[in-house]
Structures are given as C-alpha cells and as structure tokens.
Model the fold of this input.
Amino acid sequence: MTVDEAFKVASRDAPFYRNTGGGVTVSGGEPLLQWQFVLELLKKCKKIGLHTALDTSGYCRWEDMRKVLEYVDLILFDVKHADSESLKETCGASNQLMLDNLKKASRMSKIWLRVPLIPNFNDSESNIRAVAELATGIKAEKVSLLPYHEYGKHKYQRLGKKYGFNGTGILKPDHQIVVTSQQILESYGLEVSIGS
Done:
C-alpha cells in the first residue's frame, strides 16, 4: 500500500474515533523498520485531528523514532524482559537500545508498557519488579500484561511457514503467576490491565 491508500483506510472511521475517543494505531512486526512510511501516515492522521498510537519495541535508531514521535499521542511500548543479558541470551539482542529509546520517548509522549508474559522467561517476581521500577521511572500511564498464547500458530500454518515455538514447552502462564504479577505491579502504584 502507498501512504495515501493506508490513510484512506485509516481515516474511513474518523467520525467513529471522534465519538469514542479512539484513533489510529500503527503496529507490526516493528513499524519503525518502515519509519518514513509511518511518519507520513501519522502526519496525515494528525492533520485531520486523529488520535495516534504507535506499537513498538523501540528497536530502531533514536533519530528515526524521534521524528515519528512528533506525531504520536500514545506509545504502546513492548518490554520483553527488563534484564539485558536474559534477553540477549534468548532473543540474540540486548535491550539497551530499546531501554534508551524508551526513556527518551517517555519525555515526548504518553507510554503504556506491554509485557508479553512468557513462562520461564520473564514471569519471575524479580523481572516483574524490575518492570515495575522501569514503569515508575518513566511515569508509564499503564502496564499491560499479555499472557502468552498460541493464537498466531494458525496464521503461520495458513502462510505455509514453520511455527518456531512448536515443541518448546512454552505454555500459557499459570493463572496465579498472572495474578501475582498484577499485584506486584499495582503495589508500585501502577495501573495494570491483563490481555490488552
């Protein structure tokens, strides 16, 4: 799609957004891999007064992100793990760039942290406390816990692609761990949602 085509789709529901307080959210994958496209799309959305949100991991050059954030009202910032070494060991990259960008971004826009809660990876009490400290440090408005699920598995099958988590033993988080994680975050004075 071109920027104009994407804008035509996004702006189609402008009256609905204005009546409900909703708006346009750009997500991905990582939308900032195509930051020029996102920048132009969000400029058009802001020009007609739409609320804009960006769903990102922050894994990008700060200068590119900064340009986009001038047209963003809310950032849905994914935090997979608070510990850089744990993330690097599992995902192959440190989270230092993402955390640096998060801190800078928090000075430009409202932030909701989104934490995919993955058993035996980031659901420990120590990691949840580290996320809580991060959230309070940047004055995040909200933290969303997103319990791991396999909803994407069928998408991979339809696309004829291999689902990388088959046989890995990753299960849906235990309900009590989700509740405990929520309680820990709330004990820091944070607003917490589950699954959104």
